[in-house]
Each structure stands twice: as C-alpha cells, then as structure tokens.
Amino acid sequence: MILKATSRIARWGRLLFLPCFGCSRSLLPDNKILLVVLISTTLLLGSNSGLATTVNLSSDTEVATAGYYQLSWGGAEGPYHLQESSTADFSPYRTLYQGDDLATVISGKPDGVYYYRISLRNEQQITNSNVIKVAVAHHPLKTALLFFLAGAIVFVATFIMIIKGNRQQA
C-alpha cells in the first residue's frame, strides 16, 4: 500500500519537476514545487499512519452446543490479538492468539458465556474490534445418552442385516 502510493507520487513528482523540453526551467515555479512536495508528503503519511479502526469480529454461532465454534475477523492488517473474557468489559481478559491468521476454532470450553474481541497494536495506539458474545451450552447428559442409544440401535440393526444377507448368499 505504501509502495503503491509512493510510486504514484514519485511518478507525478517527476512529471511536475522535469524541466520543460528545450529550456532549463521547471514546469512549476520554485515556491509551487515546495508546496506540491509538502502536500504530497502529507497525503502519503496521513493516509497510511496509524491503524485501521475497522476490525470486524464474528462467530459462526451465538450458542455453541457442538463443543466448538469458529471466530473470524478482518478489515485491517495484523498482527491480531484475540482476547477472551468472562465479562463484557474485559476485566480481566486473556489473550488466546497473536498473529496474522484471520480465523480460529475454539473448543473444550465448559458451559458459560464468553466474550471476544480483536486488539490491534502499534507504537502509537491500541485499537479494539467489536465485542461478540458466545454462549457455550453442551447438550444435557440425558440427550447425549439418547443420541448414543439411537446410534447403537442403528449400528446393531445394520450389523444383523449384513450377517443375514451374507448367510443367504452362501
């Protein structure tokens, strides 16, 4: 991004500051050249200074019953710091991830409510993303046992049909 802007300004600068063909004067008077250089430098530095403030964090679910969920983010350049807290005001919080990836999968959480945000940091400032809330609510043990029982019945029925079919062919 900086290289593209620098090359454009450098190209425009060469066009403005080249002496006119056949004479030794610049196309702009000396005081105008200084003004163009100052404006170009200000625009270049101003457009790329600091962090982008639009970091968007999202989750694939608001209530996680499967035992895992995915968080994804984007909108600004990293490195990203994914923070988790049990309170909406993030006091206290812990950093789960630091790096340039744009997503992560969270698993192994006990039942409860968790808050997440992305923090971008540089020498001048810290920028935080939107805060999202994910509630972890595993299936109750009774429901999990019913799923297991239904799967066991289907497995046994399939096994019996395979054995009967094999004996009929023999």
Structure report:
This protein is an alpha+beta fold. It folds into two domains: 2-48; 56-141, Sandwich (Immunoglobulin-like). The chain has three helices and nine strands; from the N terminus they run H-H-E-E-E-E-E-E-E-E-E-H. The strands form two sheets. Strands 2, 4, 5, 7, 8 and 9 form a six-stranded mixed sheet that branches. A three-stranded antiparallel sheet has the order 1-3-6, with no helix packed on it. Strand 4 (80-85) and strand 5 (94-99) form a beta hairpin. Helix 1 (2-17) runs antiparallel to helix 2. The longest helix is centred in the last third of the chain and has 29 residues, at 141-169. The chain is elongated. The relative contact order is 0.13. The model is unreliable at 1-21, 34-38 and 41-52 (pLDDT under 50).
How would you describe this structure in keywords?
170 residues; Immunoglobulin-like; 2 domains; 6-stranded mixed beta sheet; 3 helices
